[in-house]
Automatic annotation (TrEMBL):
CDD domains: SIS_RpiR (cd05013). Residues 15-91 form the HTH rpiR-type domain. InterPro entries: Homeodomain-like_sf, HTH_RpiR, RpiR-like, RpiR-like_SIS, SIS_dom, SIS_dom_sf, WH-like_DNA-bd_sf. This is RpiR family transcriptional regulator. Residues 293-319 are annotated as: Disordered. One of its GO terms (biological process) is carbohydrate derivative metabolic process.
Length: 319
């Protein structure tokens, strides 16, 4: 630890806070790692939070925050906050790029290099999620959704987009579902649920207050509750009956790693398909009816676009 402190302390001041944290992270004790995780997720947090508030968010003490500041080369929390503010206001193009896009990317990277980096990360996230998913639990969730009176889905921000996507898919196959991105409406709906309802909360971090509140309210009303998050010990997971794990966002793809959303989408696709299997005949009929209902709003394809294109059909269970 001493060597790490002296190495960072000798920095001439040009090293960003994010770079200091990344350099020191492998040698940090668990309590300091929690602080680092807060900073990597919300780099501007020290500007808005007092030392006590940052400690509370990280689940540690103010004294540990002070030691953390010294480990990454600052004399204390005040100087640390100045460093964060300087990073945010810095005009250097390369540093801004690193802060906003991530360390794996560089302004001079070719498009091919960017594609390769993205592809590797997205494949990693999908494979990791596939390994985390408990298929027996997902199957039980699908059965519960297929037979429930109503399904509520909660998500805020990017996770709200995922909630909307799942609702749209399930609604097409006959599931009475609604998604909520607004906490007042969501809490009202959650309070009206019952033991015949299912409620799903979606949050990468599992720490979004509004989603936690809505899922907790649904649980109190008697609903079967599901959390979809990368952190199985998060507050959201703690209020759910079942948690489906997804791959954690890559810390180098800041601030909004799309690979995390792809992990969520894979889980949602899996739930959708397993629900569809529970009532295959009805699902096929409903999909055909919904497709027919909107067919008049689509322009026909040109003959050259359909030539030699294989037809798509729903595979029967006996095939």
């Amino acid at each position: 630890m001493t060597a790490m402190v002296s190495q960072v302390s000798r920095d001439d001041g040009r090293m960003s806070v994010s770079t200091r944290v990344q350099a020191s992270l492998p040698d940090m004790p668990a309590a300091m790692v929690k602080i680092a995780e807060v900073l990597l997720e919300t780099p501007s947090a020290p500007i808005d939070l007092s030392i006590t508030e940052l400690a509370e968010r990280a689940g540690t003490s103010a004294a540990t925050v002070t030691r953390f500041c010294k480990v990454i080369g600052y004399s204390g929390y005040t100087q640390f906050r100045v460093g964060v503010a300087s990073d945010i206001g810095r005009g250097d193009a390369h540093e801004s790029w690193r802060a906003d896009i991530g360390r794996e990317f560089h302004p001079e990277d070719t498009a091919r290099e960017v594609v390769r980096t993205l592809l590797n990360e997205h494949v990693r996230a999908l494979e990791t999620t596939a390994g985390l998913v408990d298929l027996d639990e997902v199957q039980s969730i699908a059965r519960a959704i297929a037979t429930c009176r109503h399904l509520d889905i909660y998500g805020i921000g990017g996770s709200g987009i995922m909630a909307e996507e799942l609702q749209a898919r399930l609604y097409r196959i006959g599931v009475s579902a609604h998604y909520w991105q607004e906490v007042h409406g969501g809490l009202t709906s959650a309070a009206l649920q019952s033991k015949n309802s299912v409620a799903i909360g979606i949050s990468n971090s599992g720490r979004t207050d509004e989603t936690i509140q809505m899922l907790s309210q649904a649980a109190s009303a008697g609903a079967f509750t599901v959390a979809i998050t990368h952190e199985d010990s998060s507050p959201l997971a703690n209020v759910a009956d079942v948690t489906i794990g997804t791959a954690a966002p890559d810390p180098y793809l800041q601030p909004d790693d799309l690979s995390a959303k792809h992990s969520q989408l894979m889980v949602l696709d899996l739930i959708y398909l397993l629900v569809a299997q529970e009532s295959f005949a009805d699902t096929a009929t409903r999909l055909a009816a919904s497709a027919m209902a909107v067919s008049g709003h689509r322009r026909p394809q040109r003959p050259s676009q359909t030539k030699n294109r294989p037809s798509l059909r729903i595979k029967e269970p006996s095939e």
